[in-house]
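Morning run. Coffee first, then this:
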Amino acid sequence: MPDTVTLPRTLVVKLLSLAYTYNEAPLQGLLRKRDDRRMEFVPLTTDSTLPVIGEEIYGTYQNLPSSANEPDLDGLPMRHGMVHVGFNLTDDGVLQLRAWRQQNDELVPEDVEVIET
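And here it is:
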């Protein structure tokens, strides 16, 4: 049984709205915890410099092609326990949000729980 990734509803709504805007265009960034219940996302562009990974970095996000089974982490920070969130608009027009947790060198699928903040 998968573990659960907990995300604030406000963050999920913002990420899913990006799925409409950047449907097939590459989009990725970092998820930074502000406190136990609030997070923010920091977009990364091809010319962005990755910040030094500290405890405030909760994970990464990126839009995924509808055929992708897991995120492509090339160029993104990785460490054990880090969360990776992928979102996309399927060919049927359905918004999809999935999460994985970094376990050593592999990604393990996780359930997503959305909480009110």
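The mean pLDDT is 81. Good start to the day.
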